[in-house]
Amino acid sequence: MTLIIYAATTNPGKLRDFSVAADDGGFSVQPLPGLREIPAPDEDAPTFAGNARLKAEYYSRLASDPSALILADDSGLEVDALRGAPGVRSARYAQDANYAPGPSSSASLGWLGDDPVDIRNNLYLLDQMRDVANRRARYHCVLAVARAGATILTADGAVEGEILSSPSGRGGFGYDPLFWLPDLGRTMAEISLEEKHALSHRGRAFRALLPQLRQILG
């Protein structure tokens, strides 16, 4: 019987990444039932690990099945020249700065995402990286699995890359059109789902989680 792990996210990109990784390990990742009706907790921890644990424990206390395994992640982009920013604030990067791009800001750049929040964050990142020589960055993900209000497992993964000065590719989400993978000569938005699973921060974190899951579940 396939073990179901419930993910505390409604983000379709994250759910897709988790599902691809879980299938390879013989698990099934599904959205936590009723998640949209549950008020989200304040993600106020200063680290990815702290926020992942906070979310996993919070949603596991509210799950209808007290034995359910609840998976939560906190992940984001760390840019060396920006001293690790946007980091834990990756999803709220432009919002935190009250950044308001002009109506034609993205027209000449290319595809920056389907989500208005992603577009705004990418534009703000490009603005912050203007004329910056050091483009090194990484995607970092920490996963936490909780049951009945207690974290039982954690794992993390990262992938190194560089920030482009203009987007390339129409896949992925978040900062993917700007995240260049030097070894492949493509951005995260230009690779297949299979390639992304093999090297992405979420794929690496989930693969690090799998042996731990197998051990505790026998």
Offer a few descriptive terms.
alpha/beta, seven-stranded mixed beta sheet, Maf protein, 218 residues, 32% helix, single chain, globular
Summarize the structure.
The protein has six helices and seven strands, in the order βαβαβααββββαα.
Write a structural description.
The chain is an alpha/beta fold and 218 residues long. The chain has one domain (3-217): Maf protein (Alpha-Beta Complex). Helix content is 32%, strand content 23%. The protein has six helices and seven strands. It has helices spanning 12-25, 48-62, 93-96, 116-128, 193-199, 201-217; strands at 3-7, 27-31, 70-79, 136-147, 150-163, 179-181, 186-187. The chain has a seven-stranded mixed sheet with strand order 2-1-3-4-5-6-7. Helix 1 (12-25) links the parallel strand 1 (3-7) and strand 2 (27-31). Helix 5 packs across helix 6. It is globular.
Using the alpha-carbon principal axes, give the shape: globular
Give helix % range: 25-40%
Distance between the termini: 13 Å
Low-confidence stretches: none
- Mean of all residue-level pLDDT scores: 90
CATH class: Alpha Beta
CATH architecture: Alpha-Beta Complex
Number of domains: 1
Biggest sheet descriptor: 7 strands, mixed
The count of strands amounts to 7
What do we call the CATH topology? Maf protein
Q: Count the helices. How many? A: 6
Give the percentage of residues in beta strands: 15-25%
Main structural class: alpha/beta
Summarize the topology.
Layout: E1 3-7, H1 12-25, E2 27-31, H2 48-62, E3 70-79, H3 93-96, H4 116-128, E4 136-147, E5 150-163, E6 179-181, E7 186-187, H5 193-199, H6 201-217
Parallel strand pairs: 1-2, 1-3
Antiparallel strand pairs: 3-4, 4-5, 5-6, 6-7
